[in-house]
Amino acid sequence: MAKENRLTSAQKRVYDWIIDYIDRMNMSPTLAEIAAGLGYRHVSSMIVHVHALAKKGFIKRHPNIARGIELIRRKAGAIPIYGFVPAGVPFLSDENIVDNFELRRYISAPTNVFGLYVRGDSMRDAALYEGDLLFIDPTKEPQNGEIVVAMVNGDPTVKRYYRENGTITLKPENRKYSSIVVNAQSEQFRFIGTVIGLIRRIDKRRIDRILAV
Question: Tens of pLDDT along 9-46?
Fold first, then answer.
């Protein structure tokens, strides 16, 4: 990194505080919250550091929005984690990133792998519970019986995958729900990726905040 883009100790303190806040609260802080959290008596005393972070490319500021701080740089090896969105909204878009995880710090993973929090109980009998973090490989061709993420009528879903004679069946693992059957060539169906792993997180309060968005 060029010398002019390195952070001073004060700037790093502000940057680390912003990252921690976003990780805990799943939203960006206001300038007043940053100042209070770091013990600054006046917002003007801290805002110079926020301006420097934006100038050096670590954050992006949206000045007309109260919580208008957007993280630009993430830790090396971090993968994006996406949230479920209403039908018709782009699923794999930057606006739908709700968290990041340093997966490659622990294991080797494909380049395009991403994360997704489980929502609902349709895969309960496969031991996938709400709040679990799934790792998805969009390049892995699914085999019958594997768990996948797919879009059906513009709505993302996690189900067990079966394909036979040009028909795809997306099967839940909970008797309360029915299977989804679609033509493999249908424009209403889009394969997103194959589930290759999961982490069960203990911090339920944080998960509840993310799922409530």
Answer: 888 889 889 888 887 777 888 989 999 999 988 888 78
Spell out the domain ranges in the chain.
Answer: 3-71, 79-211
Q: Give catalytic status of residue 176 as yes or no.
A: no
From 28, 56, 122, 171, active-site residue: 122
Q: Is 204 one of the annotated active-site residues of the chain?
A: no
Indicate the length of the chain as a whole number: 213
Cα 94 from Cα 103, distance rounded (Å) = 18
Of 56, 68, 45, which Cα lies nearest the Cα of 12?
56
Q: Which fold has domain 79-211?
A: Umud Fragment, subunit A (2.10.109)
pTM: 0.60
**Of the residues 28, 56, 159, 171, which is catalytic?**
159
Please list the residues that pair with 181 across neighbouring strands. 169
